[in-house]
Each structure stands twice: as structure tokens, then as C-alpha cells.
Amino acid sequence: MNYVIETNQVSKIYDGVVPVKAVDEVDLNIENGEFTAIVGPSGSGKTTLLNMVGGLDRPTSGSIKVNGQELAGMSENDMIDFRLKHIGFVFQSYNLIPVLTAKENTEFIMLMQNIDRATRNERVEKLLTEVGLEDKMNSRPSQLSGGQQQRVAVARALASKPDFVLADEPTANLDSKSTENLLDIMARLNKEEGVTFVFSTHDQRVIDRARRVVTLVDGKISSDERR
Amino acid sequence: MLIKIAWRNIWRNKIRSLVVIIALALGLWAGTFTSGFYKGMMDQRINDVIESEMSHFQVHDTNFREELLAKYYMEGAPDIIEKIESDENVLATSGRVISTAMMGSANKNGGAKLIGIDPDHEKAVTNLDTKIVDGAYFEGVKRNPILISQKMAESFKLKLRSKVILTVQDLSGEIVASSFRVVGIYKSGNGMLDEVNAYVNRDDLQSIMNLDQDQYHEIAVLINSHDLAEPTAKKVQEMYPTLEVKAWLDLATGMRYMVEAGDTFAYFIVGIILVALLFSVINTMLMAVMERTREIGMLMAVGLNRRKVFLMIMMETLFLSMIGGPLGLLIAYLFIQSTGSSGIDLGAIGETYNELGFSAVVRPQLDLQSYINISVMIFIMAMIAALFPALKALRLNPSEAIRKI
Ligand SMILES: Nc1ncnc2c1ncn2[C@@H]1O[C@H](COP(=O)(O)OP(=O)(O)OP(=O)(O)O)[C@@H](O)[C@H]1O
Ligand SMILES: [Mg+2]
After folding, report:
1. What's the whole-model pTM score?
2. Gap between the terminal Cα atoms of chain B
């Protein structure tokens, strides 16, 4: 079986007066096309785990493979490049560059990959239409609602055709209507285009929409349920 | 796209950016204008020195300038002059006989420097005829005419046609006296020279001092370009190795130093101002980077590599500096052009300057090369200023940066 994400006994210990074992020997495999929620109480290690899977942080021990490739040996620069090409990110906030329009924010990732203009324009248009923002292409983030900003972030995350999208509490700052709307879009992209999503959340309504729910408690997986 | 982002980032905090831009513009305006003012003053002084005092270079017997004795004359001076004038760059020459003298009037005795000239040649070199304030330029007095300065006229209580007794040492060291009559009164604009210089006919002075017609003490040469002064002097020196040929820069003590220091001064002023501005630019940009920690972290997370982050911040700083700097230069240029043509009258302070040999009306000016050099200095300053904030941004750790709220 080929997994998009494969973690093997991954741990992360934060040094300090009292060392914190934020993630504790986690084995987690994610298949292509899954729609997975990572849940758990605050401080259970969700962000830490996602950051390691996304190559933003390195595990203290254990190994992580993305699309079969081991992350551990990569240099900082290779890692940035790897993130650019293989992983889409949606954060809780501050996702967008304030001085760029929705269109430019989405295009930005492709520019970094030296994709030609025609392809860029076509993709940006398609993505922003898919997230329902075809009429907001030239708006700057400050002119968009929180929900709209997160939708641009999803479009941006997909611009580089990543292997999967990591979203750390993407709906935490949204009202229920925007949350619903964002999840509709994510679920549809997952279903129709086979985009793999891994997201963390506290929100029961979000958890309810996930097709797989991985629960963390004190850095360990306490349950892993597919439905 | 990076350029677009950098450019737009500048305008995110309009007031802060404008403050920096205005500070840069004002600082450079002040620095550049001061340089232009100083340079204008120096250039005028240099022109004065060349056109009414030293000319471009002078030829003497090697001992003359030090000892000022009659016996250190140059033999066959008219031939030397002819040879010098054969150079196409030479505009005019003046052969002089010079002696220190005691000048006596009915009221006072005092020292003077007597310069024996051929009036026609002298005026072509120093414009002496244009400085007459009373009487005429060697016209109207038949025997032993003398041209004295206004200062001398006042201190010796002399008027036109007054008689003066001049006592000099002749060739053999004998003291000889003879009487002259004031033909004209001049004012040169250089108080120190006016204190001592008096002009007489060369023939008259030669005969008093027992010198032959072809024996001069000094040959002053005016050529068509300041820049050619030293090379031409050098050529003449090679032709007459036993004489002393010195360009204007070396004729007065401190002149070369003053001229060279003048050039350095301009850059020194601008340099100091730029260093001060450097800190304000660095400060502003560091603030801008700190404020955007999360945003920069996010950019690095989604795949903007460190080189590009570095470039982005560099460009932002460069843009900021490159708006304010050239703006200041432009304003300075306009100022220098307008005051350069109208001149700035120093008024009361000007009198003091005048005593020191400077003109009372300053016409600021700055040559293209200086503008270019100042621009290069601004650019270097901007690069240095850009470095620190960009390095700061590089040190951000994306996973920590995005956790911060
Ligand atoms: N940089 C750090 N240094 C030290 N400890 C840290 C650091 N980052 C996180 N931790 C600790 O690691 C543990 C896991 O944190 P993490 O942010 O992964 O939890 P989380 O599940 O995402 O919580 P939340 O739901 O509140 O976002 C916590 O105990 C936290 O205090
Ligand atoms: Mg978290």
C-alpha cells in the first residue's frame, strides 16, 4: 500500500525546565484521497504533529515519509522546495499576503514554481471559481470576510497541485455559516478531484463531516476511526 | 511578483514610510546643497586665484621666491616667454620684475611689494585694468607712474598724482630711491594682496635696479584650461630644468591642501548625513520585519525560500531609500542651479570673507561627477541599510513564526 503520509514512531519533545513530550510515538498512515480530521483537547499535540508532517518542524525521533520520500535527511532549502511542490497549507489566520489581491495570492505559489502565465491564469480562475470567489479576484484580503479569506487560502494551497493539503484549525476563526461553506468546498474538492485533506479541529460540526477521525490525547493516538 | 510585493509593502504604513522618505530627502538636500555651496565658494576662490593672482603657472629663478633678491633674475626672459607662448594652450604671459620696497609718502613710511610689469601683457593675464577704481591704467602720467591699491591710498593718505618715494635694493645690493606718481588706484577683491602690491612699469623698475631689459624675476602664464596647468608647467620645467616652474596649486602654501580638502569635504558632509539616515532606515525596516513575523513565517511555510525572503526585504529597503535619496538630490540640484545663477550675498559676513580672499557673493555649484558620486554613496548606504532587516527576516523560524499571534 502506498501512503501519502507515513509516520513511524514519531515523537517531539520540547526542551524546557520541564521537557514536554508534545507528540509521543505516533504511527499514522494517510492514504491518497482521505478526508481526515485530527482532533483532541488543547495541547494534545495536533499542531505539532501537523507541522512535522508538513516539514515545518523536525521530529525528535521517528521518521516521516511523504509520498514515499523520507523528510529527515533534507536540508532546510530542500525542505522549503519540497513544501512548495508537494504540500498545500491552510493556517488558522494570516494566510494571505495583505498587499496582494485574491488572484495574486493564488498565483504567487505558481510563480514561485516558474509556471507559465497562461497556465497560471487558467488555474487561478478555475480555483477561485471552485471556492466561489470568481467575483472577488481583484479584492485584497482586507476587503474579504474571514471565510472568504480562508477560501482563497484553500485555492492558494491547491495552486501547486500538492500531494495533500494540511489545514491547522482552518475554521477556528469562522462563524458557523462560513465554516459550513468552507467544509462544503473542501469536501467537494475531496470527492470530485480526489484532493487529500488533513485538518485539525476542535469543532464538533467539522468533526462530523470528516471521513476519518484521529484523536490525540497527550501526544498519543487514542482512537482512529473511519466512517 | 517579489518586486510588486516589496513595492506595495512600502505603502502599507504610509506615514512611517513617508517620514523616512522625507528624512532622506531633507538630509540629502541639506548635505548636497552644503557641498555645492562650499564647492561654489572654493571654485570662485580658485578662479580668483588663477585669474587675478597666480595665473596658471609661474617661472622663476630657483632662489627667487625664497629670497626675493634682485640678483635672482632670469637671463634672456623674452626668449623664454616666446618659447612658452609657442604652446597652443597658452593664452597670455606676463614678464615681471619684482622687488620689496619701502614706500614713503608725506604721512607714512611702510613696506610694499613693487611689481614691474608691461601693462598690456599684465592685463591679459590678471585683468588688472578692470580693477581700477580711480584714475587710469597707466595713462596720464609720463614719468614713473605707479598703480596703488585703495588700501594703500587710505593708509598712506595718497591721492591721484600724489608723489611717492620708493626705496629698493638694486642688483649690487645698493639702496636706491626714486620718486613715482600715482596714476591709478585699484581694488582687487583680495584684501591681503591689496595690503602690499603696487604696480609700476617694468622698464622703470629695471633701470632703477640696474637690471637689463631681458632680465625678469617672474613669468606668469595663463592657459586655456585649469586642468592643463600642471601638465603644461611640467613641459616647461622639462625645457628649462635650471629654472623653477610651479603650477598655481603649489605657488601658495596650503592651496593644494585646501583644494583637495574641498573635494573631500563635500563627501564628508554627505557621508555623515547618510550614516545618520542609515540608522533611521534600518530602524524603520526592522520594525516592519518584526511586525510581519507571522506573514513572513507563512511565506516561508508555503515555499518562499530564504533567498527570496532576503531579496524581498532588501528590495523593500532599497525602494524606500531610492525614493527619498534621489528626491533630495533633485531638490538640491534645483536649489544649486537657482542660487548658482543668482548668487547668495553673504552680506556682513561677506566682508570678513573678502578680507581672506573669498568673494562676498557665493554661487553654489556642483559638477556632474559629484552628483554621480553622491548617488553611488546613497546606493551603498541603502544596500547596507537593507542588509540588517533582511538578515533579521532570514533568521525567522517558520514553525515558530506562524504559532505567534
Ligand atoms: N515551541 C514550543 N516550546 C515548548 N513547548 C511547546 C512548543 N510548542 C508547543 N509546545 C507544547 O507542546 C504541546 C502540544 O502543543 P500543540 O500546539 O501541538 O497542541 P495543539 O493540540 O495544537 O493545541 P491547540 O488545540 O490549543 O492548538 C503543548 O503542551 C504545548 O505547550
Ligand atoms: Mg494547535
Report:
1. 0.75
2. 27
